[in-house]
Amino acid sequence: MTDTTDTAATPGRTKAKANGAAQRKGLKVSRVFTTEGKHPYDEVTWERRDVVMTNWRDGSINFEQRGVEFPEFWSVNATNIVTSKYFRGAVGTEQRESSLKQLLDRVVKTYRGAGEQYGYFASPKDAQIFEEELTWLLLHQYFSFNSPVWFNVGTPDPQQVSACFILSVDDTVDSILNWYREEGLIFKGGSGAGLNLSRIRASKELLSSGGNASGPVSFMRGADASAGTIKSGGATRRAAKMVILDVDHPDIEEFIDTKAREEDKVRALRDAGFDMDLGGKDIVSVQYQNANNSVRVTDEFMRAVEAGGDYALRARLDGSEIERLDAKTVFRKMAQAAWECADPGIQFDNIINDWHTNPETGRITGSNPCSEYMHIDNSSCNLASLNLMKFLKDDGSFDVELFTKAVEFVITAMEISISFADFPTEAITKNTRAHRQLGIGYANLGALLMASGFAYDSDEGRAVAAGITSLMTGVSYRRSAELAGVVGPYDAYALNADAHKRVMRKHAAACDNVKTYGVMDREILKAAVSEWQNGNNIGDKNGWRNSQASVIAPTGTIGFMMDCDTTGIEPDLALVKFKKLVGGGSMQIVNQTVPRALKTLGYQTESIEAITEYIAEHGHVVDAPGLRPEHYSVFDCAMGERSISAMGHVRMMAAAQPFVSGAISKTVNVPESATVEDFEEIYFESWKLGLKALAVYRENSKVGQPLSVSKKDTEADEPEKVIEYRPIRKRLPKKRPSQTVSFSVGGAEGYLTASSYPDNGLGEVFFKMSKQGSTLAGIMDAFSVAISIALQYGVPLEKYVEKFTNMRFEPAGMTDDPDIRIASSVVDYLFRRLALDYLPFETRSDLGILTSAERAAEVRGENPAAVESDEDDVDFAALAASAPIEKVVQKLVEQSPQVAHSSTEVLEKLQGKGADAPLCMTCGTKMRPAGSCYVCEGCGSTSGCS
């Protein structure tokens, strides 16, 4: 796709400025992924599916659309999320999209049309090939645009394509009020924004009237309240924001302490009995909770920390020195506050601006909420991410050629979008059109490394990551230089040409610092070096079309759209995950990356099966049968028995950072036992290694959200004032509904009688076998009483079903029950029958217990959940309801979720401890980390902006 040819100027396209040429070259596009005369849609098998998404906490339906059309190889999760998030039009109307074809056509045809309008293609044939190639890549999940593209492109709404925004605020009331307004508009659309508040006068400075200024922290309160009010107005996700303050601002200490002090307030209010969970009615009284906070530090400050010196706090109006502070003391306060509540993060100003291509336009002072987009104030960036696993060939090598071609298509499409896109403010429109910032990135790096047999925290793994990142950005800038020869460089290029060229040389030179260890990383790096050399030569002649090309974003929702195992630059969350099944239900599976990694490492089929079974049961590889200890590190994950160290995450970021135009969205997670000194070391080493930004989160450090559900060990000398909840018995009334079932198991006959509360809660069972007075009859009577009393005290029926099904002893064998043809014991039969009669389909499906009609529906490829029940008048939701709870003494007992609804909850069940992740505000599922944000596997909602 790299060829160009002369073509006449196209009316309506951007002005031709380079060399004053009246005519420019259009792109000559060659086929790579598609076949001439065969549309990509005709190469795959399509099927119709029903999408019904519920809130698992109360069973309410969040979204329903039946008969949607998707390729058979797309997962249920990808289908659900794309249908509910990205299909446009009112549900139930003819205008509603119902096929992935309609979604892809809406977006891709808009890009193709804009490319023709603005003169990007040499001929209509080239435009047609480009359309089909882009469709193929999206259809086969090789990449995805960021969410706003799917929301807005090709619709009557404004064609907003950017997820990331940076605003600005000056030291005037008008500017501050405008900041509130602009943030509100961006939040309303479900996106996020960040800005630096350092231009606002400190509370220690005087106003012209003679009084003291309010200071930026006070104005943060108003912005926080505004975000808290508007955040739920986004149609697709919660709003996100970032506030930054320079380390030399006179109010820096107050800024550092803001969220830590509020966290103390949360604890005090919680202990006083107020509802301080995320979404709780009393959490709104806590301030500054809607933003990520970051301190922007300089090399001067970090050197003062290193040397034990002091530094100056400077007035905002004239830059005069107000006072001097000990650098180590301020650095310790930053680490202490982050240790307590995860804020503030840290951003390294000199490193950020040393890699800035547009310093003549203005310094980089801000970032988006997730810290991957860093550029000038009042600007935006549209993102797209590649699925790296798609380029891993069967022989274990990385397909450099196909990756290069894919990057060319993606970056071209992203560039075209700026020509037709709409933006939320006039200032952002002007700066984005003048600088044309792009943010290509990737997902599935962690899965790629594991599948290739490389540990995430290893020299080999970092070499592969560095090479791929360098190749991606190198190809992107080379394509940008070629596009500059077609439609001209970005408007601000002439002003910033020397700086832009300098940064391009820095990227190229960084390749010399990458040490290779094998064939894969050597081939990737060789291609990257060639791309930088070629691209810089073209750029010296044409300039570049884009001021920046790449970022590493969280890839939350779009990661699910591409069926990625890992997001952004992250490693695997854990070795087991939660998978939704076609037709309803779910199951816990070992990541498919694991068997592939074992095969790459040379293990035979029998060993792979044994190791995989061990992982499925234990959730980790320690002592797995036949697995060599030297291979344990390949399977290290973000969480679990063998979790990657904090510096392992930092070193991976450092490997990729020199080849990223922007920054990397990632939070470094550390255990609860980490110290403040550990935080200081992580921050300091990140600066030494050349990172642009970093956030560190200590497990269980935040209170105001429903995170870990594990019990906390308390110090023996620290009495704990907590609340205990003790169950009480709910007896059945004198008259209650019941049913009796006769059965035969292996020739032994008996009766099962089950009684329920008037509101349909199961409360009593009797098992009758053998003659009265016999040992078996006595045992069954005692067993019946024990089960009945426990049910009345609120023990869920499903726990008994989990424990007693598959229990083996005689009598066993054939039964006379058409729904349960064979039982491994009488107890196995009895609890399978109770499950079929008294548990809802979703719970039974998770346990693998279905009626004969439901199993037949599965065989026919139908939805077993749609099989009509003979018990339509039964309230299944109430059947497993627990007994009422009575407060007894001051002690808190926390309960783990009984059924997993996400990979995070699967991991919790295996580990026996809670994981720090918020609950989804839409469907109640526990979310999983995605960069510095969180993403919901149930519905695709994110806590961030990308």
**Alpha-carbon distance between the termini?**
28 Å
Given helix and strand content, the structural type is: alpha/beta
CATH architecture of one domain: Alpha-Beta Barrel
CATH topology of one domain: Anaerobic Ribonucleotide-triphosphate Reductase Large Chain
User: Could you name the CATH class of one domain?
Assistant: Alpha Beta
Helix content: 25-40%
Query: Roughly what is the average pLDDT, rounded to an integer?
Result: 86
Q: Looking at the structure, what is the overall shape?
A: globular
Number of strands: 27
Please describe the biggest sheet, giving its number of strands, its sense, and whether it closes into a barrel: 10 strands, mixed
- What is the multimeric organization of the chains shown? single chain
Tally of helical segments: 28
Calculate Rg over CA atoms. 30 Å
Strand content is: 15-25%
Query: Which parts are unreliable, with pLDDT below 50 for 5 consecutive residues or more?
Result: 5-22, 232-237, 704-724, 870-897
Function: Catalyzes the reduction of ribonucleotides to deoxyribonucleotides. May function to provide a pool of deoxyribonucleotide precursors for DNA repair during oxygen limitation and/or for immediate growth after restoration of oxygen.
EC number: 1.17.4.1
Family: Belongs to the ribonucleoside diphosphate reductase class-2 family.
GO molecular function: cobalamin binding; cobalt ion binding; nucleotide binding; ribonucleoside-diphosphate reductase activity, thioredoxin disulfide as acceptor
